[in-house]
Design a protein that fits this description.
This protein folds into two domains: 21-175, Rossmann fold; 189-308, Rossmann fold. It has helices at residues 2-18, 49-57, 77-85, 96-101, 123-128, 147-161, 164-184, 211-218, 237-243, 259-267, 275-279, 296-308, and strands at residues 26-30, 33-37, 44-46, 64-68, 88-90, 106-109, 133-135, 191-198, 203-206, 221-223, 232-235, 247-252, 282-286. The chain contains twelve helices and 13 strands. This is ABC transporter substrate-binding protein.
């Protein structure tokens, strides 16, 4: 009888130790929605390249079971091999059926467009199917986003995925590289810059709300459309001419390669008269570097080098 009681006690204690976490679990407030994670997700789908690169840099590895909508063909060397191993669900956004085939227990979006209600991919719709969602905070920021937005999201992912130590290391690496550039540029006057993404009837440019604007500022550039309260926005060519930028940053990505953009500016009656175009002062930067991504310090270093030689 004593032996039976011991066995029953051990079984009871063992059961207590392995019981499923309470249904409440970890609660995360993200872009106006509260997500609950009983345990770290084991099958994650990421719907934009910059979000995918963050997850890989955190060491998510084979828990990342799908990605979509690549913006370029050259991920950073630090994550390139892992990125190539992630199944590509679609060149643009996948259908909700394709997402469900991957059996995710978390779907991450880099842009709010990842969760398109009309396409059946809204956050609410996925959550009704039992799949939590997270969105990079730049897409819902109520005030200008920046490096702090990025490091806060890295900390959030670290907490949700059980990768807190690596999240702290990654944020420290990013902040250290950026601080080094800022120290080199401490006494350098900024250059007025126009960022040209795309567009002919209007110019699609970088506004002051997004992470990219913060990257420019830290690299010794003054975004001539920093007063526009959006991450990216259309502006008129008359406005471009009136603001007389001293340099142009051409944005490069798969859907809008940089090749024709310089020629278009040089043939445009208003853009061609700006000091930047007259002087032929151009920089080129991948779109991913101007979004909330692990490439934030790459953008700062690249722009500082091309604008100031620093």
């Amino acid at each position: 009888m004593r032996r039976l009681l011991v066995v029953l006690t051990v079984l009871f204690l063992t059961g207590c130790g392995t019981a499923a976490p309470p249904a409440t679990g970890m609660r995360i407030d993200n872009c106006g929605r509260t997500q609950v994670f009983p345990a770290p997700p084991k099958r994650v789908v990421s719907l934009n390249q910059h979000a995918t690169e963050i997850l890989l840099a955190l060491g998510l590895g084979d828990r990342l079971v799908g990605t979509a909508y690549p913006d370029d063909n050259e991920p950073p060397e630090s994550v390139a091999a892992d990125y190539a191993a992630v199944p590509l669900l679609a060149d643009r956004y996948p259908s909700v059926e394709r997402i469900l085939e991957a059996e995710p227990d978390l779907v991450v979006g880099g842009y709010s467009s990842a969760f398109d209600e009309a396409e059946g991919r809204s956050r609410e719709s996925l959550e009704r199917k039992g799949i939590p969602t997270l969105l990079l905070s730049e897409s819902c920021a109520e005030r200008p986003a920046g490096m702090r937005t990025l490091t806060d999201d890295i900390a959030m992912f670290g907490e949700v995925l059980g990768l807190q130590e690596r999240a702290g290391e990654l944020s420290a690496e990013i902040e250290g590289r950026v601080r080094a550039v800022e120290q080199r540029l401490a006494n350098v006057p900024p250059v007025d810059v126009f960022v040209y993404d795309s567009g002919e009837q209007a110019a699609f440019t970088l506004g002051g709300q997004g992470v990219g604007n913060d990257a420019l500022a830290r690299a010794g550039a003054r975004n001539v459309f920093a007063d526009v309260p959006e991450a990216f926005a259309d502006v008129s060519w008359e406005q471009v001419a009136a603001r007389a930028p001293k340099a142009v940053v051409l944005v490069d990505y798969l859907a809008a390669p940089v090749g024709p953009k310089r020629a278009y500016l040089e043939g445009h009656p208003m853009a061609a008269g700006t000091p930047a175009v007259r002087a032929g002062r151009y920089s080129t930067i991948p779109l991913v570097e101007l979004t909330e991504s692990i490439r934030f310090p790459d953008a700062v270093e690249r722009l500082a080098r091309e604008l100031h030689g620093a």
